[in-house]
Amino acid sequence: MQKNDKVTIGLIQTSVYEDIAANMENTTEKVHVAATEGAQIICLQELYRTTYFPSEERKVVTKLAETIPGDSTKVFSTIANERGVVIIVPIFEKGTDGNYYNSAVVIDADGKIMETYRKTHVPYDPLFYEKNYFKPGDLGYRVYKTRYANFSVFICYDQWFPEAARIAALRGADILFYPTAIGWIKDNIPPDEDWRDAWETIQRAHAIANGVHVAAVNRVGDEGQLKFWGGSFVCDSFGKVIKRASEDMEEVLVVEVDLAMNRRIQEGWGFLRNRRPDTYAWLSKNSEK
């Protein structure tokens, strides 16, 4: 099928509880709603079917992991094929190598499972102890050439790294999807640091710097000491937010985007064309400030 510049994106923002089956059912219902409202590419949030267990420094969670193919791909491959939609499914993956990863499965509109993306940048901070649970991604950055658009998927902490976004744009991604699980630490919100604003700003900056659309989807609700701020959004290729979800309610966000704008921004501003790779060698050195 020939791709159209007009593409409709669906983002599924939910609260998550201990009951995996209930979380999956809630999400699948909302995927159907998004498809009915015209969404062609639907993205779920990071670790969509489990609570954010990395908020605890040490916890036995291997029983929560799933394989690819597995439970999630079985459900969403069927939906993708029946509804003719592309679905991005972020999961806690048990790899065939015996390691565990924070991953995203992309399923094309015919139900075919495409190559997996594994979260490349893994944080280790108070209440975000992900290095204790996930190996860093080892499959590289992907550009998914799907029925409706070419896009890349990154996961949460990846969103703070401009290099990943730039590579994806240079490889032909028209949209950057960022499934996320991020929020405030209760009773510890620094008065001089607006985390939520920084989170949105850095992603909008990727859109501007690369002339691509960005879609970020986050969870909502309280889980332990974390309060997730929702705020899922889609912005155009010059960083303007087209539509944004609430901070505290589950929501199905459906947004039509015009990818023709990407070409206008890229050609007009020349941020990709006027790069100077010959001056960037220092970036590839394993050095610290």
Structure description:
With 289 residues, the protein is α/β, with parallel strands linked by helices. It has a single domain, classed as Nitrilase/N-carbamoyl-D-aminoacid amidohydrolase. It is 22% helix and 25% strand. Strands 5-4-3-2-1-15 form a six-stranded mixed β-sheet. Strands 6-7-8-10-13-14 form a six-stranded mixed β-sheet, with helices on one face.
In short:
This protein is of the alpha/beta class and 289 residues long. The chain has helices spanning 20-36, 71-83, 162-170, 195-210, 260-269, and strands at 6-13, 41-44, 86-94, 100-107, 117-118, 144-145, 150-153, 175-179, 183-185, 213-217, 220-223, 226-229, 233-235, 241-244, 251-258. The protein has a single domain (7-275), classed as Carbon-nitrogen hydrolase (Nitrilase/N-carbamoyl-D-aminoacid amidohydrolase), CATH 3.60.110.
Show unreliable segments. Answer: none
The CATH topology? Nitrilase/N-carbamoyl-D-aminoacid amidohydrolase
Just name the CATH architecture: 4-Layer Sandwich
Number of helices: 5
Oligomer: single chain
Helix-strand sequence:
EHEHEEEEEHEEHEEEEEEH
What is the global morphology? globular
Q: How many domains would you count in the coordinates? A: 1
What's the CATH H-level homologous superfamily? Answer: Carbon-nitrogen hydrolase
Any chance you could write out the topology, listing elements then pairs?
Layout: E1 6-13, H1 20-36, E2 41-44, H2 71-83, E3 86-94, E4 100-107, E5 117-118, E6 144-145, E7 150-153, H3 162-170, E8 175-179, E9 183-185, H4 195-210, E10 213-217, E11 220-223, E12 226-229, E13 233-235, E14 241-244, E15 251-258, H5 260-269
Parallel strand pairs: 1-2, 2-3, 7-8, 8-10
Antiparallel strand pairs: 1-15, 3-4, 4-5, 6-7, 9-12, 10-13, 11-12, 13-14
Helix pairs in contact: 1-2
